[in-house]
Write a structure and sequence with these properties.
Layout (H helix, E strand, L loop, with lengths): L5 E7 L2 H13 L4 E4 L1 H6 L6 E6 L3 H13 L4 H15 L1
Length: 90
């Protein structure tokens, strides 16, 4: 029986960022293990979450995460735009 080797491709101090990255990778068909998820959710200042993927998926995962980092919009930008749009509608 062969053991699959998992490698850490990213570390996130914020649980929401880790979950967004996990969702993006899973949507791309990459199996993800999020190490430290529970501790990070309970005490985000003290713990971080690590995204781990199978070693054969490492290059694809790093490429996708890098593309996400290069994206012009952050979650904060989108949220601010949504709030502004709601304010204009009233």
């Amino acid at each position: 029986m062969s053991e699959e080797k998992f490698v850490t491709v990213a570390t996130f101090p914020e649980p929401m960022e880790a979950n967004m990255a996990r969702s993006a990778l899973e949507a791309a068909g990459i199996e993800v293990f999020l190490q430290g998820e529970t501790a990070n959710s309970l005490l985000p200042v003290a713990f971080s979450s690590q995204i781990q993927v199978r070693s054969e998926d490492e290059a694809a995962a790093r490429g996708l995460l890098s593309a996400m980092d290069d994206a012009p919009e952050s979650l904060e930008d989108v949220t601010a735009a949504e709030i502004a749009a709601e304010g204009e509608g009233h």
